[in-house]
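Async update (no meeting this week)

Hi team, since we skipped the sync, here's where things stand on the single-chain job. The sequence we agreed to prioritize is pasted below, unchanged from the tracker. I ran it this morning and attached the output directly underneath so nobody has to dig for it. Comments welcome in thread, and please keep replies under the output.
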Amino acid sequence: MGRRVLITGLSTFWGGRVAQALEADPDVDVIIGLDTREPKVKLERTEYVRSDENYSILSRIVKATGVDTIAHTFLVVDSTTMSSRAMHEINVIGTMNLFAAASAAGSTVRKVVVKSAALVYGSSPQDPYWFRETDKRVAPARTRVERSLLEVESYVRDFARDNPHVVLSLLRFSNVLGPDITTPLTKALNLPFVPKVAGYDPRFQLVHEDDVVSALLFALDQEVPGIFNVAGDGQLPWSEVTAIVGKRGIPMPPFGIAVATDPLQRLGLVDFAPEVIELLKYGRGVDNRAFKDAGFQYQYTTAGAVEAFVQALRLRKTVNTKDIDYRYEEDVEQFFRHSPAVLRDGPPS
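Output:
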């Protein structure tokens, strides 16, 4: 019998991408996706189950389906996207319910992969040049999203200690760049003039969106228990990143950047949460050697991720295309899944 995988956050960018990749894997028999919203990408084998924000139905799903693997792809890492209460429900309560389901008596779960962020290290002028997985953050957590992620990691350590029969991998991803993902950094780099904090030129370490998906799939497929940093090799000053993109920086006052960029934020052009402003001052670097030692191979360095981002921008301008979001329709998906008219093995000869 093949693997049976449950994905949290199916409607998110990462949940959808992981589900699409698993559908192409013949060793995966069952894929179940939980979310409060319907998927945004076309899926054929994945079964969507509507859930509340804290995945209270997860225990019933695990028991009923006998899943052996859980991919926890959705933790909120941008505090501008929702209220503190909603963030706590998703990050903290949702993770608690996930681990409760995975550790329940008779649970069939034997592997859990959690997608976290290097944001847990924070950003401060006293930071080391490279954060290792065993390093603690230098400055105390000051933002709600950082506090929630640290709380999640405390549950991760407790679960790993109490359930040694389950392979648990927690991946701390650096800031993501890519042609399709939308983040505060990609929004900033798409502006005519890229905001920067006056008097600062922080070093950035980035990871390409394809490497994020590949890292999650690697952890799902291999036996790699533990906590791992995931980031492309090398660092670049923010000024060099903007130069590669072909933009000029526009300095913002170091103690009033949120106010200075308020018109842009109201238009939805940038999202400068407190943690992003700290990053634009001090940057962050993480040691990525442990995950490479486990066997993972990156496609992109930090500089390569920026170059790929630039190429995607140029291509979009050249072909003048607009992204069209896929809209999930249950009756359409049922047709593709079950209709005898759909060719399962290619066109007839």
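Quick observations from my side:
The chain is about 40% helix and 15% strand.
The chain has a mean pLDDT of 90.
Reply here if anything looks off.
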